[in-house]
Write a structure and sequence with these properties.
Oligomer: single chain
Structural class: mainly alpha
Number of strands: 0
Shape: globular
Helix content: over 70%
Length: 145
């Protein structure tokens, strides 16, 4: 079995998720997120802290897209996937949902339970992670051909 990884699709997914994160934690939910984190929006972090954070975000986005590419390949070998169709929105949605449900939701529930994070913060972060998974899955699947 030969595994073919589309690095162009991964690169596009990394860039797309970088901009999604800027939009999500900026104009869409930035004020609510900062309030739930106890952050003052008037305090600006050092530029090197921001650069480091952005670089680490790009690395994280790459790891997500790269690992997701392998996951999508594994899903393609599941019985019955021919009927679902590997290019279908059902496939994209199911793969994103089950990764989100199995890996992201338990981690965030732990943050609510043990780190006393609010449910509002958890909802903002969980929705963001689900959106990133949908973006990655869509780009990896639709750019596969």
């Amino acid at each position: 079995m030969e595994i073919s990884i589309n690095f162009l699709a991964i690169g596009i997914a990394v860039v797309a998720n970088f901009f999604l994160g800027a939009l999500w934690y900026g104009p869409l939910f930035g004020k609510a997120w900062a309030a739930e984190m106890g952050m003052n929006l008037d305090d600006r972090p050092d530029k090197w802290v921001m650069i480091r954070g952005m670089l680490l975000m790009v690395v994280g986005n790459f790891l997500t897209a790269y690992c997701y590419a392998f996951d999508l390949i594994a899903w393609s070998y599941m019985p019955g996937m021919e009927e679902v169709g590997l290019q279908s929105w059902t496939f994209i949605g199911m793969s994103a949902f089950f990764i989100w449900l199995g890996f992201y939701v338990p981690t965030h529930i732990g943050a609510v339970t043990w780190e006393r994070k609010s449910w509002k913060l958890t909802a903002i972060n969980l929705a963001y992670h689900f959106a990133t998974l949908l973006v990655v899955a869509t780009l990896l699947v639709k750019l596969a051909n």
